[in-house]
């Protein structure tokens, strides 16, 4: 059985912090890319604003089941992104012989903050969706923005400089 000081000393706050950032990027990349599922609904909602969306959706051949399915995908995509990021983080941690509890702690922290909307996405999406806005196509807009978010998340997990930064703590112990 592992002693308490040894257990705590194996926690790596650098890894938890960097993987937390990666988890956030994965969540919002998946949420952004899910808009590609039905860009017709996105365009209708953008054009109509708050006025008479029901009629606009019906006139364009979209029924309630399409809207419900799109809403379901939108609401679950962030959790799927979090789960994918956690699995990748756990694999990276095990492969590099880092403590397996670090990604698990990161998962719980990220899920809690995401669940209660404390990650600040309301403000940050204006910045991270900016590159996609240069395109006049809804598909390209969300594809480019989602891929940029995903790339940043992947870089946080795999970039050699970032991994060396994480390992500074491990070698110091």
Description:
The structure is a single chain. The protein is built from nine helices and no strands. It is mainly alpha-helical and 173 residues long. It has one domain (10-172). It is elongated. The two termini are 20 Å apart.
Keywords, separated by commas or semicolons:
single chain, 173 residues, mainly alpha, 9 helices, 77% helix, elongated
3D shape: elongated
SSE string, helices as H and strands as E: HHHHHHHHH
Total domain modules: 1
Average pLDDT confidence is 89
Strand content: under 5%
Structural class, by secondary structure, is: mainly alpha
Could you give a quick summary of the protein structure above?
It contains 9 helices and no strands. By secondary structure, it is mainly α.
What topology does this entry show?
Elements: H1 4-9, H2 13-33, H3 39-48, H4 53-59, H5 64-95, H6 101-115, H7 121-128, H8 138-158, H9 160-172
Helix pairs in contact: 2-5, 2-6, 2-8, 2-9, 5-6
């Amino acid at each position: 059985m592992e002693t308490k000081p040894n257990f705590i000393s194996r926690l790596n706050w650098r890894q938890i912090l960097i993987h937390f950032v990666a988890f956030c990027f994965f969540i919002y990349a998946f949420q952004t890319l899910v808009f590609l599922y039905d860009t017709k609904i996105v365009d209708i909602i953008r054009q109509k604003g708050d006025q008479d969306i029901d009629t606009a959706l019906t006139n364009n051949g979209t029924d309630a089941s399409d809207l419900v399915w799109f809403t379901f995908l939108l609401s679950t995509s962030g959790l799927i992104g979090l789960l994918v990021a956690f699995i990748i983080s756990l694999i990276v941690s095990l492969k590099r012989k880092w403590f397996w509890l670090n990604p698990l702690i990161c998962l719980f922290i990220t899920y809690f903050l995401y669940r209660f909307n404390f990650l600040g996405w309301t403000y940050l999406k204006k910045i991270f969706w900016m590159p996609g806005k240069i395109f006049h196509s809804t598909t390209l807009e969300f594809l480019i923005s989602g891929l940029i978010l995903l790339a940043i998340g992947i870089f946080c997990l795999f970039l050699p400089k970032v991994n060396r930064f994480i390992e500074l703590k491990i070698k110091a112990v």
